[in-house]
Design brief:
Length: 333
């Protein structure tokens, strides 16, 4: 396959490139990224400009002519579409980029793929399109969409476009909706890296509301393997939920990271939990997400390899050992 990964300089995208570039099925891997504040080629050290199968195209998905050029020029057969504006807080303060990138950009990509008659289009989405759960229950592939932020509304819109292109034009598409990812190379505005950096600098750790908002956490390496599984074996026209089976309240997650850093770096003085500071909840903050990932397990044989305990320890260690990377990418915020 000649594989196009959009958003390959971002958090999940760069991990995905590392995961798949040496697969024997991949003849060429093209990374399309416009390098916004959250996209950094530092995430691809050892691959970018080095790997013989790898090519980079600095292109904005909103530029339909350039998108079509890339797909034609590289004779793209498969697409894994991850590029998106993805930070909920930014979508609340400035929703415009989320609409133009996540909706219009996806439309441009679908049109280019339809023009060139590609073999498979994997659209990577989020569980946030389903809205908020109560204390019980899980999101399934048939849960009605009920997005509550401009970000999740834009992703829901792009999901529906992909679905429509399959049913209207017969485009060979498949959709995945994943739970919250964590792991190496996550831009330092997201919860886990924010907490780590706050602890290291002995600054207050901001926790929204009462801290009892629940998320289902998925190690990024497990997500990458799930995406590859769906690309290679997923049924066209289907949707697959990808989750880590790791529900954690935000406050409990923060407390765990405090304890881990106190263990790994006792020279900081310990008692990092004292840094926890509750701040005003953000508008439209969904109370609980939880994924039922039984379909992808049952039909495609994927299940996460990491427990939350192993994954979070690896993640905290990685950030402690890669503070130069944190400083380099934070300079662009």
């Amino acid at each position: 396959m000649n594989l196009l990964i959009t958003g390959g300089a971002g958090f999940i995208g760069s991990n995905l490139i590392r995961h798949v570039i040496d697969k024997p099925e991949v003849a060429k891997l093209v990374n399309l990224d416009c390098l916004t504040y959250a996209g950094h080629l530092e995430n691809l050290d050892g691959i970018h400009g080095v790997h013989p199968r790898y090519a980079f195209e600095k292109v904005d998905l909103r530029d339909k002519d350039s998108v079509l050029r890339v797909i034609r020029q590289h004779e793209i057969t498969h697409i894994m579409h991850l590029a998106a504006e993805s930070h909920v807080d930014r979508s609340i303060s400035g929703p415009g980029d989320f609409i133009t990138t996540n909706i219009n950009g996806t439309f441009n990509l679908l049109e280019a793929f339809r023009d060139t008659k590609g073999q498979k289009f994997l659209h990577v989405s989020t569980d946030e399109v389903f809205g908020s759960l109560g204390e019980t229950g899980f999101f399934t592939e048939t849960t009605p969409y009920a997005p509550n932020s401009p970000y999740s509304a834009s992703k829901a819109s792009s999901d529906l476009l992909v679905r429509a292109y399959h049913h209207t034009y017969g485009l060979p598409t498949v959709i995945t909706n994943c739970s919250n990812n964590y792991g190496p190379y996550q831009f330092p505005e997201k919860l886990i890296p924010v907490v780590i950096q706050s602890i290291l600098s002995r600054k207050p750790i901001p926790v929204y509301g009462d801290g009892m908002n629940v998320r289902d956490w998925l190690y990024v390496g497990d997500h990458c393997e799930a995406l590859w599984t769906v690309l290679t074996t997923g049924k066209l026209g289907e949707t697959y939920n990808i989750g880590g089976h790791n529900e954690k309240a935000n406050l409990h997650l923060v407390q765990l990271m405090c304890d881990l850093i106190d263990e790994f770096q006792p020279e900081l003085g310990g008692n990092s939990r004292s840094l926890i500071t509750f701040v005003t909840d953000r508008p439209g903050h969904d109370r609980r997400y939880a994924i039922d990932a039984s379909k992808i397990d049952r039909e495609l044989g994927w299940r996460p390899a990491h427990t939350f305990e192993t994954g979070i320890r690896e993640t905290v260690k990685w950030y402690l050992e890669h503070q130069d990377w944190v400083k380099a990418v934070s300079a662009s915020k």
